[in-house]
Design brief:
alpha+beta, elongated
Length: 170
């Protein structure tokens, strides 16, 4: 009888092919676990009740802006690194300092707060570092925080944004 010499298992391709699937799943599981444990969940709010109570206060500020006939137009000039704006109002905004808050849609560490002082015609310019391509929530408030204008800006696909107080008022 001739004995057929069999090659060891690791010289065949089928065991390696069968082990490839579980190995890929194990590596993907480790990578997913690393991302899950090293990244914070920025979209979860800790105190939902407090946020809900704040909604009513925000609605009062929206109505106050509508009563003043406020509007704002913003345009970002990347070449100059300036955010240009114009505030329209039914009454003059004498000695008013505006807070222009740009909130990143998903990363709170990228949020920016700019202080602007409009001239007599309502025009202003504020230095702004490179604005990254994203969807930004724009919140403009007065010095006393008694009114607000709020809107969403998809930059750079929309080069300008115009927010009118009466747009959200019932």
């Amino acid at each position: 009888m001739n004995a057929v010499a069999e090659a060891p298992w690791y010289t065949h391709r089928w065991p390696w092919l069968l082990m490839l699937g579980p190995a890929v799943v194990a590596v993907a599981g480790i990578a997913t676990s690393y991302v899950a444990f090293t990244s914070q969940d920025a979209l979860v709010v800790g105190d939902y009740y407090k946020q809900g109570k704040a909604i009513n206060q925000d609605l009062r500020r929206d109505h106050a802006a509508a009563a003043l006939g406020l509007s704002i137009e913003l345009r970002y000039d990347a070449a100059e690194g300036l955010l240009h704006g114009h505030v329209g109002s039914a009454r003059p905004l004498a000695d008013e300092t505006l807070s222009v808050r740009l909130q990143h849609a998903t990363q709170p560490n990228r949020d920016m707060v700019l202080m602007a002082r409009p001239d007599a015609q309502g025009n202003f310019s504020v230095a702004l570092p490179m604005l990254e391509r994203s969807r930004w929530q724009v919140l403009v408030e007065g010095k006393q925080r008694d009114w607000r204008l709020e809107g969403a800006w998809q930059w750079p696909s929309a080069r300008e944004i115009a927010i009118r107080a009466d747009a959200g008022a019932p």
